[in-house]
Amino acid sequence: MKFTELPTPCYLLDENRLVQNLAVLRDVARRTGAKILLAQKAFSMFSVYPLIREYLAGTTASGLYEARLGHEEFGGETHVYAPAYAEGEFREILEYADHIVFNSFTQWKAYGSLARAAGKSCGLRLNPECSTQPSDHAMYDPCGPDSRLGITIENFQPELLDGIEGFHFHTLCEQNSDDLVRTVAAFEQNFGQYMDGLKWINLGGGHHITRADYDVETLVHCIDYLQKKYKVQVYLEPGEAVVLNAGYLVSTVLEVMHNHKDIAILDTSAACHMPDVLEVPYRPPVYRGGEPGKKAFTYLLTGRSCLAGDVIGEYSFDVALGAGEQVVFEDMALYTMVKTNTFNGMPLPLIAIRRADGTDEVVRMFGYEEFKRRLS
C-alpha cells in the first residue's frame, strides 16, 4: 500500500505528532516559567505557525529573512542572533526583532546604540568553552577549537556591559539534559560573576526535549536553578525537538539496477532534498526498512542527480523493491525544507500535511520557476 497518494517526492508533516511534541514543550514552559521559542533554522514551515504559536512564545532567527518571517507569520517574541551583521540588513532587522544578540564586543559597539535607540533588548553570545559533542559532530560544535561563535572568557570585556540585558549560549546538538548541566557549570565558572542585573539568559537549542529518553526533570531543575539564583527569565530555542519524528520524505523508486549490489534509484536526492545525509553524515530511518542484511532484500538507496555521491545508504526490506514502489524516509521535517536546493535542475519536493483525521493536504507545490528564479 502507498504511504500517500500525493505525488512524490513529498515532504509530509504529521499534525498529530507535531502536537505531541508541542505539548511536551508547553508542559516544560508551564512548570518552570521558561519561554520556549521555535528555532526557524531547523524548521520554517510557516503554514503551521498558527498551530505552533498556541504552544510556544515566539521564534528565533539567524538573520533578516528569518526574523521577518517569524515576525510576520508567527508573532510573539522574535529573537535574532547572527555571527556578524551587515549594516543595511541590521537596520531592517530592527523593524522585526525584539531581542538582538551580538557575537562580539566589536559588533556590540558598532550596532548596540542603534538597537537600544529602537527599544530592543540586547544580549551577548558567550562561548563557555565546554565541548559536549561526539567526535563525529565536530562541525556542529560551537565550543570547538577556533570557533567563531560566541565570546570566550579571554576576550570578555566587562567594562562594555552597560546596556546588555542578557547572555546567550548555544552549545548542544541533539543532546540530553545532562550535557546542559555540564555546560551551565562551565558557563557559571567563566561568566557567573557578570550575571548580576541581567534580565534574561538564553540556553540556545540542541535540547532533544521531545525524545523518548530525554530527562525532562533534570532540565526543569536546571531552569529553576538559574531563574532562582540569578532572578532572570530563561529562554530555550529548540528546533529539532519541535518537529522530532513528525515528518516524512516520501519518494518513489524509478529503477532498480545491479552493480555488485542491488541499487534503487529514487525520485528524490540526498544532495538536493536531505543534504544532512552527506554533510553530517546522517542516516535517516526508513519506514519498514532495516539495517543491511536484516531483512530479505537489501538495496543501496540513491538519488537521481548526476552526482556520483548522491547516495542515501543501504537498507533492507521484507519485500523486493521495484519501479513505482514508495520508500519513506522518517524524521524528515527538520533541516530538510530549509536546506533544499535545485542542483542539477532537481524539482523541489511538494510540501504537505497529514491532518489529525489522517487526510493528506498539499500546502505548497513547486515548479520550473523556482529553479529559474535562482539563476541569472
From TrEMBL:
EC number(s) reported in the record: 4.1.1.96
Alphabetical UniProt keywords: Decarboxylase, Lyase, Pyridoxal phosphate, Spermidine biosynthesis
Coiled-coil residues: none
Molecular functions (GO terms): diaminopimelate decarboxylase activity
Pfam name, any one: Orn_DAP_Arg_deC
Cofactor(s) demanded: pyridoxal 5'-phosphate
Residues in Orn/DAP/Arg decarboxylase 2 C-terminal domain copies: 141-332
Class in the EC hierarchy, top level: lyase
A Gene Ontology BP annotation from the UniProt entry: nor-spermidine biosynthetic process
Chain sites annotated for binding substrate: E240, D276
Membrane-spanning segments: none
Keyword Ribonucleoprotein: no
Name of the protein: Carboxynorspermidine decarboxylase
